[in-house]
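User: Here's a chain of 394 residues. Predict its fold as tokens.
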Amino acid sequence: MKKIVMISLIGISSMANAAIEWDTPQGQLKLYGDVEINVDAASSKQQLSSLKETADKKNKPSDKDHWDINGRILIGLDGYREINDKNFAGFVVQPLADLGGDMNLDDAAFYFGQKNEWNIKIGRFEAYDMFPLGQDTFLEYSGNTANDLYEDGFGYIYMMKEGRGRSKNGGSIALNKPFLDNFNFQLNTLVNNGEKMFNKSTYHGYQIDKKKNVVYLRPVLSWKNDHFSTAIAAETNVVKNAYGYHDSDGKFHDQSKRTGYGATISWNSEGDWDAANKGLKINTSFAYMNAQDEKDMTIGTDIVWEKLGLGYYFANNDIKKFNPENHIKDGHINNKGKYKIHTVNASYLIDNVLDMDNFNMYLGTYWSILDRSKSHGDNTDDRYGARVRFKYFF
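Assistant: Prediction complete.
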């Protein structure tokens, strides 16, 4: 029997994807795309924090280039089927082409469930965002989650992302259960190679050896109405001795004990979370990590008013132990102690470029300073830069 395929072009708001949709007997398919190209100029690309500050996945904190052109093009294909306005299943796959010439992957997941009752998602994806950044343009944290989060010798801006997902070394299973109208409970389980969270497999100057995969449990309880959204969460690795290091006597030291806690609250003046370029939006978040030989705390707030975005983020790293025989080349942290990072960023949206509602530009800038005691070297070190981002949906 011949299948009849209907094709319709759907235009969505300027901040969302345009898409082509096909209706088939097995459900609906949607094809879409997202272009993001950045032109950067900075005091130095060598970063103060371990989290990546460019969309180029090849970027390392030790890079010293003052300027850069980076970005990616995403092609997405979604599938969805619903039966009797209740049971549903679907998938999403989003390959990425980097300007560096590599092919990567954003999301690749399968999901199913019952509307307003429960759903399960399996694969590569990001769970609930416990540290939203508003109109984030230059501080490119999104998408880095569990992929080489920690670069030894650089400050750590902990944002409740270690168990969030989208790992290149494992996968996730997330259960979502809505209840009492505005509440939702999510439990994400991330299974991956925890050693790979540490770029170059070093932590506090020690070489990390893997013994087992980690299993992160990340429960999130959230509440949301038209104007307010709030959530509390925790994440912890439940596998003992998953990775660690051997000292000079050959004794193994477990470094995989990591438990984090977080809370976030957001408010919008329009009573519509999808309203773009309208009204005032505010996010405030807190995250705390209790790790082996280290405690990290981050507080951040950002404001988006119409097209203008402003943000401030404070991070405190308290490192209890560091290998005195290993000096991190190009690093800023080479000893135990307390380190503070202050970061301010701003951005401005230029929408509907060339009268196209799917073509936007962002102007972004940031300034970040690492404050440390004089016994650990220079008292402060700072970075600043500016970016022009081209954003195009199709």
